[in-house]
Amino acid sequence: VDKPPVRRVAIFGGTHGNELSGVFLVKHWEENGAEIQRRGMEVKPFLTNPRAVKKCTRYIDCDLNRVFDPDSLGRTVMEDIPYEVRRAQEINHIFGPKGSDDAYDLIFDLHNTTSNMGGTLILENSRDDFTIQMFHYIKNALAPECCPVLLIEHPNLKYATTRSVAKHPVGKYEN
């Protein structure tokens, strides 16, 4: 299938404010962006939950990685709206809108875990040929190191993750 090339990529860190690897990388790339830039592409490092990062806590009011659903994204902004819902709307405005042709092509959402799973890629759609080929490339580039791929696909579930704004959402967990 002939698809348009990937031109806009975002790298998210700090979706959970106490997961610091992505935070450190995003801050590094905000200051030293040359190492992630490629000709013909826009690569944007982005700190997703700055208030939670500042407090070094998972979230302020609710989990940012669970509020990219239609109800939260369409919620009227009022004073009592949870911080992460407001932040999700801002992120959707910058990198989306979710499900549209204008959405970023790819979002890498960098996380940490205390599970002994090493570097693991997260796939939300087994029919996303581009992401599957990209994972294949990454796994081969890292060989002989192990890089498991976790498929979290459910036929009736629309994902409300931070990365789900992109046409090709990718989660990366590191312990």
Task: Give a quick summary of the entry.
This protein is of the alpha/beta class and 175 residues long. 28% of the residues lie in helices and 19% in strands.
Secondary-structure element string: EHEHHHEEHEE
In the CATH hierarchy, what is the architecture at level 2? Answer: 3-Layer(aba) Sandwich
Indicate the percent of residues in helices: 25-40%
User: What's the CATH superfamily, by name?
Assistant: Zn peptidases
Q: What is the typical, i.e. mean, pLDDT?
A: 91
CATH topology: Aminopeptidase
Number of domains: 1
Structural class computed from helices and strand pairing: alpha/beta
Molecular structure report:
It is built from 5 helices and 6 strands. Helix content is 28%, strand content 19%. The chain has helices spanning 20-31, 50-55, 70-73, 83-95, 129-142, and strands at residues 8-13, 42-47, 106-112, 120-123, 149-151, 168-174. It starts with 7 loop residues before the first strand and ends with a strand. Strands 2-1-3-6-4-5 form a 6-stranded mixed sheet. The longest helix has 14 residues, at 129-142. Strand 1 (8-13), helix 1 and strand 2 (42-47) form a beta-alpha-beta unit. The chain has a single domain (8-173), classed as Zn peptidases (Aminopeptidase). It is of the alpha/beta class and 175 residues long. This is ACY2 Aspartoacylase. It comes from Pedionomus torquatus (Plains-wanderer).
Topology of helices and strands:
Layout: E1 8-13, H1 20-31, E2 42-47, H2 50-55, H3 70-73, H4 83-95, E3 106-112, E4 120-123, H5 129-142, E5 149-151, E6 168-174
